[in-house]
Amino acid sequence: MLRFHTAHQSQIIDQIAIKERNIPGILLMKRAGLFAFETLQHHFSNPQSIVVFCGTGHNGGDGFVVAQLALLAGMEVHVLLHGNPESIQGDALIAYQEMLAVGMTTSPFAESIIIQADVLVDALFGTGLNRPISGQLAKQIQWLNHLKKPVLALDTPSGLHADTGAILGQAIHATHTCTFMTRKLGLHTFQGTDTAGKVHYSRLFLPLEILQSQSPLALNHPLKYWMNKLPERLASQHKGVAGTVCLVGGNHSMMGAIQLAGLASLKVGAGLVKVITHSEHTVAITQSIPELMCYQPEELTIQANLANVVGIGPGLGLDDWAKTLYQQVLDVPLPKVVDADALKLLALNPQKHSNWVLTPHPGEAALLLNMTTPEIQANRIQAIKALQQKYGGVIVLKGNGSLMYDGKHLEICLAGNPGMAVGGMGDVLTGTIATFIAQGLSLWDATCLGVSLHAHAGDVLAQQKGQPGILPSELASVMSQLMSYRD
Fold it and tell me: Is the whole-model pTM more than 0.90?
């Protein structure tokens, strides 16, 4: 299990270590610098010259340590200082003075020096930045990014919000990021993944009890943790105890969406899958996937009440046909998974229920909260909490670093890849989560298992075939295979 903390909590943990546990701050700074330097040695191709960009705060202090270690290792090192050296204080000042004592000096931003470097080290701001980068520095960062040189960022890439993953004006695009003491959620959601590159974490040898003194902002559990929530399949088991799922959707020209949801339900182990769709689709769906049981809309209430869960939204549409089915599903006293067009209908008439899972992407979340998509993305944590407060149940905010929240627990999924950004992926997720609910898992466990399994299957496909061309229909089969690895 991985624990993520806010930048403010990280500062509190730092102060607990220094003031209550009497761990010298300069020692923590040197541990951070050493970890970063070792990462530089191990993950970059034999760099001979580096440029270290340092600010005047603690992040700059980490950079001063890296610069000393690189010099002692025989590298050519240039330290470019942003800010007035007279404003350097505390442990950063100690590191700065030690750097000067070994004969190093600092220079202002210099393009000629930067162009000659093998690797750039970003130690400008770290987690302390809370305002947009603008002016001349923004132009300099834009120029640096255009060079496309390898970059090692310390703690967080400068310009990236450590909590939200939003870029504040401009941000340095790192190849690798070393983050210290606590894991930062912003490195793994929204623009964080693209900005931070590969993330390396060190707790700097702090005792676990210090880290655990602050309640985490979010958690991440491995896939097997969630898979082990599933009930054991006994030799005497029959289809009636494997869960019955009722899926509603597939308007004109959107048959494929509900078919994908049904396929996913079958592939992750549903005993029976009943599809309520347009009568014109029933024969085609049954011919394509004979295991799916297709019914006309008039049978929705009867078939739903014979199921354990209802999933609605894939290919539902927004016409009168869709609105009628949507209202009928709301009246069914069963747990529900609500996605796609059903979320748009919910946005028109907001309701709050405890017994459903809502799975919006950022655009749908924006409709549900009367916001814009950029506003949702700028603070995904705030958005998912607002969604749960307004609509209840369990919320999945899909996207890079998908988030799940039930009002108490926040989980982030670290798996998944850009190749999964294709129509139909959400339909597969709907059928998957619905099946796990039908098999007896709580809404929370079913949601976290569904999202994690879905994302890991996407990563398997990307590894096997490359990201371009990943198909949702292929994903369902890979999920089935992954479930066989359950302990």
Answer: yes
